[in-house]
Specification:
alpha/beta; about 325 residues; about 40% helix; five-stranded mixed sheet; about 30% strand; Rossmann fold; Serine Threonine Protein Phosphatase 5, Tetratricopeptide repeat
């Protein structure tokens, strides 16, 4: 075999590699196996736009909610014209990362949202009291005789509106350095309420005149969605440093299992039941403290501190005192009274 024949396979291999990489689509960033990301190290977060007619509404709510969490430092991008074209559908391509590379943050949040508000009008036949123009003497609360109008019961048609509203959102959290998704999911909020009709004179304020605008309803749904989304992220951040207490019996352990699988609301309900029925269960108080600390707001941190102190008064587990010191440090660093 000649030298040129020996060299042919090498040149052929190089040509094949050049051809292959030259033909890889340049639109998307391809990662075969995303790297593991430690949420403990994530602090600076940029909130990008959310696609959809109510996207700016939800983006604003997410930013404000994020600003309440002591473990995150949010960056508002609403006034950055270079990011106006960045959307959820484009997240992950080279243009996306080129636009966010100079933000100086650890991760960015983006998503899309849709809101549906449907009003169905109707009429109820409602019993109401109306004056007759005739009066009678009765004693008032002070014992004085006064004239009181005699009323009669009549049936009147009272219009109502049945409002059904639903917000559906998707989100992704991108690690800027590694260019991988570190969190993704869906959050849905819905509500249904009747205004007017047989609710017109109820003390709950569901008169037809109190029917909120569609935008106000969307605001409420967005606020609750943002709270759920940030609660999920803040608990992911602290999952690596906050250890739950499994020493409180089968019921407490059931709550721990639910919390570890992400079902924090159900876990908290179980621990709250434990402390009602067995107020001496230190583990249940401590785990409730972890759940509240995971939300990260000032109010929740103070509640967590109280729960840790209650646990420490009932037991000697090192977790309890560590929890008190940790929360005190966060509150102190934030100059919160």
């Amino acid at each position: 075999m000649t030298n040129s024949e020996k060299a042919f396979p090498l040149w052929a291999g190089l040509f094949t590699l050049i051809f292959f990489f030259g033909c890889v689509p340049q639109g998307k960033v391809y990662r075969v196996k995303p790297a593991r990301v430690g949420w403990q190290a994530i602090h600076n977060v940029a909130v990008l736009g959310f696609d959809g007619p109510y996207g700016e509404n939800l983006r604003r709510q997410v930013f404000h909610r994020l600003a309440e969490v002591q473990y995150f430092n949010p960056k508002d991008t609403s006034q950055n014209p270079a990011l106006s074209h960045v959307s959820y559908d484009k997240a992950g391509d080279y243009e996306f990362f080129h636009a966010i590379e100079d933000l100086g943050v650890d991760v960015v949040i983006t998503g899309r949202v849709s809101v549906h508000v449907h009003d169905a009008p109707g009429v109820d036949q409602v019993e109401v009291k109306e004056g007759t123009g005739y009066y009678k003497k009765e004693k008032d609360a002070s014992g004085q005789w006064v004239d009181v109008e005699i009323k009669r019961t009549v049936i009147r048609p009272i219009p109502y509106v049945m409002r059904e509203a639903r917000l559906e959102s998707e989100f992704k959290v991108w690690d800027v350095l590694r260019r991988v998704v570190v969190a993704a999911g869906e959050v849905t909020e819905a509500e249904r309420g009747k205004f007017g009709g047989d609710k017109e004179y109820a003390s709950s304020g569901h008169a037809l005149s109190n029917l909120p605008t569609s935008s106000a309803t969307a605001d409420g749904l967005s606020a609750r969605t943002a709270a759920k989304l940030i609660a999920r992220l803040s608990r992911m951040k602290l999952a690596g440093v906050l250890k739950l207490d499994e020493t409180g019996g089968a019921t407490v352990k059931q709550g721990v299992a639910l919390a570890k699988s992400g079902h924090w609301k159900a876990a908290m309900q179980i621990w709250e039941q434990v402390v009602r029925e067995e107020p001496g269960q230190a583990a249940a108080y401590y785990n409730l403290g972890v759940a509240r600390e995971g939300l990260g707001t000032v109010e929740d941190l103070k509640t967590a501190r109280d729960l840790y102190k209650r646990a420490a008064a009932l037991g000697t587990n090192r977790l309890y005192t560590d929890g008190i010191l940790r929360v005190d440090r966060v509150i102190g660093d934030s100059r919160i009274e």
